[in-house]
Amino acid sequence: MHRGSPVPPAHQFKDYHAETVNPPRVDPPKLDTKRRQTLLSLLNALNELSQTESLGRDFDQNPNFEDDKDVPTVDEQLQVAGAEAFNRFQKRINSLDKELRNFANAARQLGSSVGILSSAFRLRERLIQILFIFRDNAADLFPRKVSRQQREFLVNPNLMDRKRKARRRKSMPGRVPAHLEDNLDLESLPEQFESFATALTTFLKCLNEFPEFTDEAVNTSIKSFEGDLKYWACCLQDYRGQFKYPAVQRYVHDLTAEMGEHIDTITGTLSMFIEVGVPTIRFAQKHGAANLLTLSTVATFFSAVTATTLQFSYSQTGDILSDAVNAFWFSSLVFSIAAAVNSLLGLSWKQAMYRSPGDRVPWWVLIWIKRSPLVFLVMSVACFSAGLVLFTYSSHQGKVTSTITTVFTAFTSFGLAAVSTWFASEKWTFVHHRGQKWLSDVLKDALRHFMALRLVSIVSKCFGLGSRYVQKGVEVAGHNLRRVPSMGAVFTTGIDHDDNLTTGESDHDMKRSPEPLPPLSPIRQSVDSQSHFSSEGSPHPNAESPTTFSDVSDPTITPRDRLTNAIRSVMMLQSATSPTRKRTTSSAFSSAFTAPDTPRRKTEAGVTTTFGGSKVASVIPKLKSLEATQDLAAHSALVRHLQFSPNGKFLATSSWDRTSIIFRVGEPCVPHRVLAHASGFVGQVAWSPAGVLLLTRLNRAIKIWTEDGVCRKTIERHHHVQSIAWLPGGEAFLSVEGSEVVKLDLNGNVLDTYHFKRVFIHDVTITPDLQRLLGVGPILHSPTGLHPSKSRVEKQLLVYNVDTKVIENQTPVLNDVRDITLAKNGQVALVSYENKAPPQLWKLEMVKDQARLTLRHTYMPKVPVDFAGPSYFGGKDDQLVLCAGKAGDIHIWDRDSAALLHHVHAQALGGDLTCIAWNHASDNPFMFATGSHDGAVRLWTTAPDYRPSPSELSRRPTARSTHSVTPLPIRNNGVRTDNSDVPLGEYTSEPLTLTPVEDIGARDRFVTFAQSHT
């Protein structure tokens, strides 16, 4: 309200308040919807304008960052990703600690739970220490996102240890004990892993000491985690003194994801154990306690009965019967009291929290506690029964009374003895056979062994022979009786045929009748189906005619003919019913590509970061104009690898169709030579530094070719060849074979061998000064021979000194590393990984005359991408980094700033990509090639001087436009060339180039090509 304005009266405030609290309902007019849509359109337009202006500012502004510094957005992305990974790990640790705390509270209700409580507390203590070390490591890597934790604020979760230390502190008031161990740093991580594995083993052992319940899921998860912890602890021993290196710290941080999976599994199984296992154990212990309590009650009651009856006989002494009665009844009283007392003792022992587990108690103690109450009670009953029988005679009862008492006592005693024997036998069977056999099975086995005795077998054979003779005599007599009334019977052919069909037997002395079968008969259905298959699938000219069986009694048909006809019928039936095989061929190619004439693909709206120099800003417009200008039908199978020659005149490709092709680079590219390989897939091609020789790698061989396609040498190797790499001078090359790298000359002679111990090398490269090898690959096993149980195998980046033949530096990584490429200056190396791990740039530094790899950049895509093949340096002075995705994406980053300069989306391409290669001899325009699953090779080039207007883009047809179906003109051995008379995007059934292999066949393709613009 403006100063000096009149104050409204009070009733106006009341009306305004009423309207504000309960506003009247008014239907919104249609104009509000139109206004809302108009505002949204304006906001979208303003957003696009702001993005365009920011892109223009990025092109025009001066560099703001140093050469080797990360772009803030990229570094911020790595910081956020690392902090999120640690936070997830912390949540998992806290969840497991919570479950262990709940388990400890639930286990207090169980007997003999002191062991499991102590191990759970010790495990929680190890979790707190591990979390502290990983937090300290994450704070070093991501200082802006993860804060350190002071050691003074750590609380020991081990309650028993805290109570013991509190008592010690009372006894020594001047000494204050530490909360946790004092050596909690990253260097102690191997020992912490070992202690953690030991704590897990102790926890599992204490858990299995409860025989009432066994959870295999808990056992499996804990044993798996224990194996991986020991594997990590053993492998980390090799990095003593290097735990403050950023590379080792990143590897330790990456272990949080592997540990998190184990922790989640244990947390889930432990939660299930608390819900199911603890109540089961509690029920079993209550059941055992209830049995002991019942025995104690029965023994107490029986001791009272024995004491009462003893009053009738304790005064009668002097004769043998009276003394025997008193002896049995006094013994019964003693045994019943012992049974009651031992039952109470066993009940107290079972419910004790601090009792020792069963395997820590002497056997006689366990037997006395568990078995003595029942045994004493049985002995008390037996003594009382014997004394009762004798009492009837000593008290001079009647004969009827004495006899009945004796008989009934014997009968009940026999039943008691039989049941006790059966019960004891069942216990013996369970102990000896571990629950795999029942007592009845054991008795059957015993009977079978008894029958296998010599004497018993002889007797059984005699009985068997006698019974056989008797049975044979009965059969003969019955047969004679059946033949008497059937001598004059006449059997018709139809009846005999029906009997044969019913019984399923064939009588060769009878004639089969062609009498039709009932329509629903299964035999009729089978015959119909056979004839149906014969009519459709049999090539025999008479297959459609019904099969008739001739009279076998015809003297013109011999048994040999019958056998031949039967075999022929079976063969015809099999050929008719067997499915016909159809030969499959590769699918025709029908993908379309957009030429520079068509609208350019949508890329990033703008690069939202600033770059380290004006060169990068000048490169971006050229990258935006990259288009697939040529599509070559190179192979009939997957393109495995490709590489341009150093002079840029040739492009060599290798494929799984056992061929390698040399293309002459030009407008257009034409096949120069086809290098056929008789056996094995061609996995790699490598041009010599001078560009006059080409290596092709097979599984166990290496071929040396000239640029004219002449095979100079085939070098056979005894081991599988993983990779090949030329020396800078071109006088020799390296062959990677398992854990060895062999240096070979051009004649195949072994010049030297470099051993990498426990590492299975995937790829190597050599520095320009020939002093060091850089290799990548997974380790075969830990230094002590351990293997991971569930986690990924550790991989290493190695720096090998060629002169001293010593590994100077080894850097651990967790992702599946596959390739390493050295830049022209020999100072940085590009490392490529499999799956979704992005490529990384590592710098080769010298520290005290030893080389060491230091991570400089991680080239992050905007969305997770499944990368394909090795990454490549590109551009002038290797200023670009290229990587292809399996789905068809192509990412191009700036090498020094790790900024994503250009991204070709997957939907703009046809077919999945497998590899990519840059033409270093072509700086203007840029050129690179890609290989795909369908065998096609596509060349990408830039048009730096051409920028189509938006109106031209809208008028031009897309790659999937419908055009007339007329063949394109062919020139230069079937290669399509640019021709202004040919309309763009027409369909042809002819291949783009002459296929290198004659039997590949033509492919159908939609193609568009660039035309020259003035």
Please provide the count of β strands: 30
Secondary-structure content class:
alpha+beta
Instruction: Please give the share of residues in helix.
Output: 40-55%
- The stretches of 5 or more residues where confidence is low (pLDDT under 50) are 1-31, 54-71, 169-179, 486-555, 577-613, 948-1014
Specify the overall morphology: elongated
Strand order of the largest sheet: 1-28-27-26
Percent of residues in β-strands: 15-25%
Number of helices: 18
From the N-terminal CA to the C-terminal CA, the straight-line distance is 66 Å
Major beta sheet summary: 4 strands, antiparallel
Give the radius of gyration: 45 Å
> For the residues shown, what is the average pLDDT?
75
Question: Quaternary state, please?
Answer: single chain
Descriptive account of the structure:
This protein is α+β, with helices and mostly antiparallel strands. Among the domains are: 72-284, no CATH class; 296-444, no CATH class. Helix content is 43%, strand content 17%. The chain is built from 18 helices and 30 strands. A hairpin with a 4-residue loop joins strand 23 (880-885) and strand 24 (890-894). Helix 3 runs parallel beside helix 8. The longest helix has 65 residues, at 246-310. It is elongated. The two termini are 66 Å apart. Mean pLDDT is 75; it is low at 1-31, 54-71, 169-179, 486-555, 577-613 and 948-1014.
